[in-house]
């Protein structure tokens, strides 16, 4: 298939709107037109908030006409995973049950902050049910589809976010990442994605999955756009008790800083196993470009993944227990069965998983005394076919859904910041994780920006539209 032309980046839109070369309303109408033209294929959106978007864009244009400041995202269209509260919509979280909820009275904090920076919300995005998914397949809304091959998965659970950005419907989308749900769609759909440090960005007025593992963050087609969104969303928020009380630490001004002084290592052992050749090739390309040769071992990474599973399924089951009792047939059967299994895990296993989590975090923190950034695969493969149930890793046939996140789970388990960068291999892109120490999103973003400038990382134009 031929490539679809890519519209302006968020940074370019904001500059053009601020300089009155285009209007925010024109940028919004262009995004709405792209959604109307291509979402029939991608199935990324579950709700398009066209009237709200036009009103917001007109307000941005009026502010510019009055000489008022409009923010660094002036007129930039964006969309959010449908677990974010959007005023006037029920927060469906990919489920059938939540559609019975009343409309949200207020936007999520991160939507408010994006719009305070001048951005324009154009809709809510498809996702795996209750965020318990790595595929992007939703039994209620249909699967979101990969913009480079619509027969393939987007990855999940932020599948609509990956599809909308990878397909250039919007330059920025917001998603959530519990065990890899920003990084996996970024890898499959060829976008940049940021999972910030746990507690860095507010989760207020978003539908939870696993409170001790949930992160919210942006996906974008460029590192600068990713950083613009991240900077706009920073800051403490009393409405999220896990959100740190820390001043905003802008990253956009630091992106072009030389990375020569950063110590870059490659994750070895566990992270060099269970890979298809394309995943190994992507990491090798990134490592070569950065001159990285040192190998570091994240201790007991396989055990960390197992512990993450236990915490995920037991916390998720506790959250949904009442719904499981009252409306079991309204769940995706695959999600329902995993949650029921989680409800039956003995408490002693959960206790052991949490104790191990503390030990593992301390050991990984020791690594960051001698390195600044660690490279690892984001997914073991490029996007599988929609409906594909299994693949073969290291000679063993394994279920796809459970093993797509094999390399992301040991990282989010202890809340580390990660930028997923897309490596544009043929015929499909695949992501590499740029992992940094807590609160050092700036370092991961600087490395991602350098890779983008070198042409090693890039969001490819969509081919499947």
Automatic annotation (TrEMBL):
SUPFAM superfamilies: Amidase signature (AS) enzymes
UniProt biased composition (Basic and acidic residues): 140-151
Positions of transmembrane segments: none
Coiled coil: none
Annotated stretches, region: Disordered: 140-162
Pfam families to which the protein is assigned, alphabetical: Amidase
Domain Amidase residue range list: 27-442
Database matches in Gene3D superfamilies: Amidase signature (AS) domain
Protein name according to UniProt: AtzE family amidohydrolase
Species whose genome carries this gene: Bradyrhizobium brasilense
């Amino acid at each position: 298939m031929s490539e679809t032309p890519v519209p302006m980046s968020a940074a370019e839109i904001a500059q053009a709107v601020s300089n009155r070369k285009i209007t925010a309303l024109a940028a919004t109408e262009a995004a709405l037109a792209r959604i109307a033209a291509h979402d029939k294929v991608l199935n990324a959106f579950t709700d398009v908030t066209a009237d709200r978007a036009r009103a917001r864009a007109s307000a941005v244009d009026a502010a510019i006409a009055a000489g008022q400041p409009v923010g660094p995202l002036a007129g930039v269209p964006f969309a959010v995973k449908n677990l974010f509260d959007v005023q006037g919509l029920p927060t469906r979280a990919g489920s059938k049950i939540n559609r019975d909820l009343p409309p949200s009275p207020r936007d999520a904090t991160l939507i408010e902050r994006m719009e305070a920076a001048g951005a324009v919300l154009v809709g809510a995005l498809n996702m795996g049910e209750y965020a318990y998914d790595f595929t992007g397949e939703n039994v209620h809304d249909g699967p979101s589809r990969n913009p480079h091959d619509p027969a393939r998965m987007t990855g999940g659970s932020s599948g609509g976010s990956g599809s909308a950005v990878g397909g250039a419907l919007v330059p920025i989308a917001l998603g959530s990442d519990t065990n890899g749900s920003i990084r996996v769609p970024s890898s499959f759909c060829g976008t940049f994605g940021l999972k910030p440090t746990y507690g860095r960005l507010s989760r207020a007025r978003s539908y939870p999955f696993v409170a001790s593992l949930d992160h919210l963050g942006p996906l974008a087609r460029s590192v600068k756009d990713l950083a613009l969104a991240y900077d706009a969303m920073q800051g403490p928020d009393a409405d999220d008790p896990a959100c740190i009380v820390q001043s905003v630490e802008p990253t956009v001004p630091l992106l072009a800083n030389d990375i020569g002084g950063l110590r870059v290592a490659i994750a070895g052992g566990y992270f060099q196993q269970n890979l298809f050749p394309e995943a190994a090739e992507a990491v090798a390309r990134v490592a070569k470009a950065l001159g990285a040769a040192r190998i570091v071992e994240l201790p007991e990474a396989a055990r960390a993944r197992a512990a993450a599973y236990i915490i995920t399924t037991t916390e998720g089951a506790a959250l949904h227990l009442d719904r499981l009792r009252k409306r079991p047939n309204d769940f995706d059967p695959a999600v329902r069965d995993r949650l029921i299994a989680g409800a039956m895990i003995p408490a002693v296993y959960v206790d052991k998983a949490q104790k191990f989590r503390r030990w593992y975090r301390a050991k990984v923190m020791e690594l960051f005394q001698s390195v600044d950034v660690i490279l690892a695969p984001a997914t073991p493969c490029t996007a599988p076919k929609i409906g594909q149930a299994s693949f073969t890793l290291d000679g063993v046939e394994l279920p796809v859904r459970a093993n797509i996140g094999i390399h992301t789970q040991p990282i989010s388990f202890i809340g580390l910041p990660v930028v997923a960068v897309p490596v544009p291999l043929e015929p499909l892109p695949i992501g590499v994780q740029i992992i940094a120490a807590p609160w050092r999103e700036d370092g991961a973003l600087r490395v991602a920006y350098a890779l983008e400038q070198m042409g090693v990382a890039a969001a490819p134009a969509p081919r499947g539209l």
